[in-house]
Protein: beta-N-acetylhexosaminidase
Amino acid sequence: MHWLNIFYSTTLLLSIAQYMQQSSAQLVQIPSIKSFSRSVLNFVVDSSIQIVVDVDFAHNLTGGFPTLVGFAQTFREDLISVTGFSNISEVQTGKVSADATTSTVFLTLGPSSSSNLTLFNGKSTGEGYEFEVAQKLYTIRGVEAIGAWWGTRTFLQQVVLSIVNGSNPAMIPTGSGEDNPGWEIRGFMLDAGRHWFEIPFLADLCVYASFFKINQFHIHASDFFYDPSFLYGEDWRELYTGFRFQPSSDSPIFNLVPELNESWTQNQFSTLQTTCSNHGVTLIPEIDTPAHSLVITKWKPELMISGTPDLLNLSYPETIPTLKSIWDEILPWFTSSEISIGADEYSASLADDYITFVNEMDEYISGSSGKSIRVWGTNEPSTTESISTNVTIQHWWFPGGSIPVQLMDQGYSIINSDQVFLYLDGKFSDGGQFPWTLNITKMWSGAPDGQGWAPNIFSADDPTNNTSIENPLLRGSIMALWNDWGNNATTPLEVYYQLAQSLAVFAEKTWSGSGVRASALTQDEFQEVYPVLNAAAPGQNLNRDTGLEDGSVAFSYDRISQFPLETSFESVGPPYTLSFSVKPPPTTNTSSTPLFLGLDSILFLDSLSFKDPSTNLRYPLGVDLPPDVFTSLEIHATVNYTYALLNGSTSALYWTSNLDIWGEYMQIVNMSFAAPSYIIGLDGFEGELVNVSLRLGD
Structure:
């Protein structure tokens, strides 16, 4: 199994073994379990295991998610992934008896009345579940089907940790437990307006996040690249803009989309929504207006405020009707009960216009689709107007933004996205403002009282800006990864590298809080089990793992006599070393012929350029190899960089990108590329290639 082939030290294995053998009411995993009472026996997970769905609830539908049997079918696929048992029987519907003779996972609904499966604020939630583990019967009883789904994530993580601990087959301790999240919203936001992402990658992010019980994926789907020297000059139309929803060709808003090849059709987006919902994740789409609206004013310049092309003129008669026409086109795409209209960073001098706009859009969207709206928490100074309390406000900024505790006192529902704790920026953070991944130490001890962060913590240094976990208007939290520096700052996989651990940290804190449940993970416990669970997360392969151990050779060829040559590996994630010697042809132009091609990267001889096939951007090393002469290369990659060594030299040459930081200065950053491992030498390559090998690990 691929995830077992990562290297673990003896210390790590012993630590995991100690956690797994605890007799306290705890099963160590991410996020932590609310409670578990353990007995002395074990439930064995072998190839004869079966999954049975309670016939009384098999086809219940709630909340836009699959039926219980639909969730069970995805669970079966995941169980095959983490165990390697390809012959697990198909999901059955029916009943089971307590004296089952074959290991059985039974999914049902309706927790007992003795359980307190409510959020920290006392509100009911369908996401809770109970589980009872006997020697042959593992029962997951969800409040709703989504609760049972999260129970299957608990089961899978225990299987993974048991296997890594040396059990073959896996064994799960018998006993009983209950679990539910502390908060309704546990989500992550990705800026897809400034960086283009293809649907398969976004779907994989949903699947990965679901393994850690993240339940919302907020997609910021429109925006522009900010450079004031362009924005406020004659060349403002040259700035990069993105609007990712592609309307039908006969739509009146069809020309709104600047690049059709960087937009999603309705069918493509529907596929994404289905994948996410099948894994318990709701997509929250965002179109950001009336600021951040350059993509709209490039389409209809008459809608902008003169001199500020990114701001819409809300007093112009056609502006709000145009925005309504945009939503009319795409609202039917979305299965979520909420959407975001953005609504941040508008001119404070136009506060009344802004508030009127938000309220009108709230009434319009609610009336036309039944959906409610969210806005970013910009503080608009008005003494005469106020935003409707029907609107959820997503707090992100002190001191110039809204103050969430004051808003909750006024009756507003709040989502915590405060940037001090929860912001990342693709690859580079201007002035070191944001970390590369969420700061683990800050998440465990960065609150004013020395406790860890949780959704009720908005400020790291002012406790008066924080609230209690019981506040009924605190809906939860959404962490954010922005892409301020555009497409050339990161590849999609580099975005995943920033999100991978961050999502797991965030999941623990939004499910269990900090200092609330005795079973919550310590920072050390988290860091022990996270690498195991990351490697095993089923349903996707964002690590681009090969199934081979570190140090293994994925392929090796003394000489390649005929091109193209196809290997068994579409893409190989870092760390790796790709070695080869190449003799370019004497005269043929090689710039258009890839030397190595993979799912996530392409390597050309021309200037030794890597290409990201999702954005079609090239990253040249700036080295042109001499024709008709062999040059040997070693390409080394980690998640933070990729470099080349030529002809045995120890002087590394790094692939980089040059970022425009707010139009004020340029910043060089390293690029990390997955190995272009699938096809070697496409048709048309006329040179020679020898001593080709791909070795895994550092």
Residues 6-14, 19-25 have pLDDT under 50 and may be disordered. The radius of gyration is 26 Å. The chain is about 25% helix and 25% strand. Residues 2-179 form a domain with the Chitobiase; domain 2 fold (CATH 3.30.379.10).
